[in-house]
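sorry to bug you again but im stuck and you know this stuff better than me. below you get a single protein, a line of residues and a line of whole numbers that encode the local backbone shape. mainly i need to know what kind of three dimensional shape the backbone takes. anything you notice is useful, everything is just below:

***
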Amino acid sequence: MKSSYEPMFGPLKWLLHLERLPDWAVLGFLLGLALAVYLAWAPAVALAAALFQLVFTLSDWLSLALLPRLGRSFGPPKPPLIALAVVRAVLMVIAGLLWLNLALPVVLNLLISLVSLYALWVEPFRLGVTRETLETPALDPDAPPVRLLHLGDLHMEQIGPRECALNRLVEALAPDVIVFSGDYISLLHPDFAQACDHIRRIISAWRAPLGVYVVSGSPLVETDEMVARFVEGLDNLRWLRDEAALVETDAGPITILGMSTTHEREADIPRLRELSGALPNGTFRLLLHHSPDLAPEADELGYDLYLAGHTHGGQIRLPLIGPIVTSSEFWRTYAMGRYDLENATLYVTRGIGMEGAAAPRVRLLCPPEIVLWEITGKRAEAAD
């Protein structure tokens, strides 16, 4: 059985070939789209419509090309440029064939430009801290809260302003424990050696007095061999590979089960049951797993907290509709945020980075986040 993530992999890999097109070929394609727009409009406004199409697409090209040159994000510009140019051309051609006023498609294209600029240049760098609290009878109510920081979906290509902001936040928050739910690198990143070096420079700075615990992400994004390269020799963190760590806090012990994912529930569910059966009794139980797709089973097995990522919150969320893609077996059921289940609390982080390969490095109505938990003990309710 193929994972839910695998269907995305083939198209994203194929689209990377568009980046190899020479500039003259891309420019020729854009001119061809402008010609199609010209032919769709009445002669009186045809030239103006074609020029608007060309100006908008060339401005897209400039915006996308400047991102890596200015060190903001590092995706290939030509695949998203071609996709955006086609969308603009279709809009202009339909408007021309319907004999609409030229002002309408121009305004719509201007709106597309504004949204594109925001999604490319602004929102991916609005890294914020989401604060959550949890009360549990498994911990001492008289002890200070345990401050646990959840990071997810780093998806690094090179160190940029977002990664620098991340490490400043981690240091300023000074959590007791840090957990990372996987995906260090971007999908199909072309320069692994450089990405590995930059990843190590970021994650080696993560420090917490009670430890930093990490798991692997999607196997199609990063193999165990790749993760081994990322964490090799780093004494500030512990890579949990289907194993548990017992963290002694002032409020009582916390058991963190770090489990890798195959994105196949048929394989992951029995492994979760087996690993859970070996956990110590009487502790606060935290499941750290890249995907939220084991939520029903984690709830049934009595976990107190389940921390995951993988969905990016959809990364692009449309008003009134929400995410279109989540790469989860449950689609939008556990897309992002907090879910208080019958026994467990699940939190699916929107993550830090973005999808790789030929996907545009955009976020819309779904800014990146890290999540700071304050976990406190809960007093038993007095009997009547």
